[in-house]
Amino acid sequence: MAAAEFDALRNLHKSGFDYPDASAMYRAYAEDLFQFDQRYRHFCESADVAEEKGWNVVNGAINVGLRTALPTDCGKRLPHA
């Protein structure tokens, strides 16, 4: 589910990000783009749970659409708070 949500958000912004100035970019982040960070964290948390359970979904079909958008080091981030 987390991968699908991230991919859906990515598809909404296929053309990329272009803002006239830093203020506009900040507003876009505060109103919408923060969801990329949030959904990426949810994806990584779900991937960690799946890996602990021995499921191979992260390397399987569920992640195919995200391979170009996500780094491969989800497990190397800071510990959860």
Mean pLDDT across every amino acid position: 74
Order of helices and strands: HH
End-to-end gap:
22 Å
> Largest sheet, described in full?
none
Q: What is the total number of structural domains? A: 1
Share of helix among residues?
A: 40-55%
Q: What is the number of helical segments per DSSP (H or I, 4+ residues)?
A: 2
The fraction of residues in strands falls at under 5%
- Uncertain spans: none
What is the gist of this entry?
This protein has 81 residues and is mainly alpha-helical. It is built from two helices and no strands.
What does this structure look like?
By secondary structure, the chain is mainly alpha-helical. It has one domain (2-13, 20-76). It is built from 2 helices and no strands. The longest helix has 31 residues, at 22-52. It is elongated, with a radius of gyration of 14 Å.
Q: How are the SSEs placed, and which strands pair?
A:
Elements: H1 2-12, H2 22-52
Helix pairs in contact: 1-2
Search tags:
81 residues; mainly alpha; 2 helices; 0% strand
